[in-house]
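thread from #wetlab-drylab

HS: before we spend reagent money on co-crystallization trials with NAP, can we at least see a predicted complex? here's what I'd submit
DV: go for it
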Amino acid sequence: MSYKLIDGKAHAQVIKDDVRARVCLLKDCGWQPHLVSIDIGGNPAVALYINNQRRACEQVEIDFENRHYPADITQLEMLAAIQSLNVDPRVTGIILQRPLPRHLDLKELQNAIHRTKDVEGMNAANIGKIVYGDSLLGPCTSLASVALLRATGLALPGLEVVVVGHSEIVGKPVALLLMEELATVTICHHATRNLAYHTRQADALIVAVGRPGLITGGMIKPGAAIIDIGINQIEVANPDGTTTKKIVGDVDFESVYDVAGWITPVPGGVGPVTVAILLRNTVLATERQKQHYELNMRS
Ligand code: NAP
């Protein structure tokens, strides 16, 4: 593998090895990390993510349970289901699979997951804590992006970082995490007047938009680190007239590769590290629940 490519799979493995060791320690004390996935409506695209999560959990001996709920479940019924998971002592982590059926309020459901079991880091309490420099149960993709940027060896204090995309799940939290590291952060979005002007200033560029080919080689500073969070399915034409489906990021890999100093591939970059951090958050959540239980027993 080229030195320019930031190997997400290798970084994910390091995190998973640590998680596995910590799961063993927890098990020795009678605590089994147990991640419950909430799957509403059985969307086939989501089934793929669920299978990846299940496999990853098996590798580190975290119990994984997918609970399926019908597509026509009401908001109130779903809130009640989450509440029963919150109070179930066997459940140490909860993940809400997206997208949800349109009639359900995503934010309300994410906030209903108890903050100590919110292993996606999407409860307002956990996202809000980032402002105070506490990212213990932070959003997985944002933490993964910062981990991969660190892997370049670039010093984060003073680094000019441009984040493209300001969603609540990725762009905003990643910008906050980087500010905490004293990077100089610029955030771009659909109203940014001259995107290329900003991206060309970046020592590190983090892109989370969902538009294939948005960033091209001419838009980046030579030697910059490129963290491509986007996941897009495109159809590529074959010589025989047929098409093949392909997963690509938001960065035009071919033109950017020659100019960049480092780049994350898609697939194989941010994605595997995001899953590894979900596992790490699950083990962290279990460790914290164990500590709280022990403190309560003592008092
Ligand atoms: P999202 O909620 O749709 O947000 C997209 C962001 O891009 C918005 O802030 C939007 O701004 C901004 N944007 C739209 N057009 C733009 C443009 N031309 N220039 C600059 N910014 C623009 O999506 P998301 O959930 O953040 O996900 C973004 C991408 O990351 C998707 O491809 C998703 O599949 C991928 N993703 C990957 C992982 C992973 O583990 N690798 C995890 C999560 C997401 P406005 O809101 O102002 O329009």
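DV: The chain has two domains: 31-114, 138-271.
HS: ok that's useful, forwarding to the group
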